[in-house]
Specification:
Structural class: mainly beta
Shape: elongated
Largest sheet: 8 strands, antiparallel
Strand order of the largest sheet: 13-12-9-10-11-8-7-14
Order of helices and strands: HEHEHEEEHHEEEEEEEEE
Number of strands: 14
Helix content: 10-25%
Distance between the termini: 47 Å
Radius of gyration: 19 Å
Low-confidence stretches: 1-17
Number of helices: 5
Length: 260
């Protein structure tokens, strides 16, 4: 337990340097097909299209955070006032952007959504634009955090899951699994992106506990009854919990909640 507590403290400290709500300046490009982003490094697959209406984004490594940034939401607007709206558009991070010329590569739908009405084709013709962006809370209204059992799972020896509808301004940085009613927890490892796995699969119905950070703050979240004893690959299960935390920043004040 002491070892895990040290690891937990390290995770909180490592997340404290990011000022997620600050306004950042960069550039954005786009992919013509959203499937290029939905099938990306986070591992959401076609489910990504239902997370933000197809407004998907690949982010650079500082935003991807080795997969911890998967599912993060950002408000992005281009800086051409004659072409773009002041509000911009909201996107969800579903992939890693290896291009060091832009912080984001967006789906064409998200890219065009930054434009004023009737100007979507004009902004698409540019291909790349100057932007400013900030991280914002994800809002899934009454949707609980969900757990999808991956097709690679093989009962009883291997379990792989991914989390969907992660609300707030948060990152899941640790996952444990145990049989319902048991205190014998097994840790899961991040396989890639939003996918976690373990070869030490408890028998019976399963519960999860998560380490969730928000800025420099963090806490445990316990989902008590998630997977039934007869869990099946490819099925999405309701965790029964919602994550809505807003990031607490350790840096100087930089955000008043509105675009200037």
């Amino acid at each position: 337990m002491a070892l895990f507590l040290c690891f937990f403290i390290f995770l909180l400290a490592s997340s404290a340097s990011a000022c997620d709500r600050c306004l950042h300046q960069s550039k954005a490009a786009y992919f013509s097909k959203a499937s290029a982003l939905s099938s990306g490094a986070c591992g959401y697959g076609s489910l990504a299209l239902g997370l933000s209406g197809g407004h998907l984004a690949a982010g650079v490594s500082s935003l991807f955070k080795d997969g911890a940034g998967c599912g993060a939401c950002f408000q992005i607007r281009c800086k051409n006032p004659t072409l773009c709206t002041k509000a911009g558009t909201r996107v969800i991070l579903t992939d890693l952007n290896d291009n060091n010329q832009t912080d984001f590569v967006l789906s064409s739908r998200a890219f065009a959504a930054m434009a004023q009405k009737g100007m979507g084709q004009q902004i698409l013709k540019l291909g790349i634009v100057d932007i400013e962006y900030k991280r914002v809370p994800c809002d899934y209204k009454n949707q609980n955090l969900a757990v999808r059992v991956e097709e690679s799972s093989k009962k009883p020896d291997y379990l792989a899951i991914k989390f969907l509808y992660q609300g707030g301004q948060t990152e899941i940085v640790g996952v444990d699994v145990a049989q319902v009613g048991s205190s014998n927890w097994s840790f899961m490892s991040r396989n890639h992106g939003a996918v976690w796995d373990t070869s030490r699969v408890p028998q019976g119905a399963l519960q999860f506990r998560l380490v969730v950070t928000a800025g420099y703050d963090g806490k445990w979240i316990w989902a008590q009854k998630v997977l039934p004893a007869d869990w099946k690959s490819g099925v999405v299960y309701d965790s029964g919990v919602q994550i809505t935390d807003i990031a607490q920043e350790g840096c100087s004040q930089c955000d008043d909640g509105t675009w200037s």
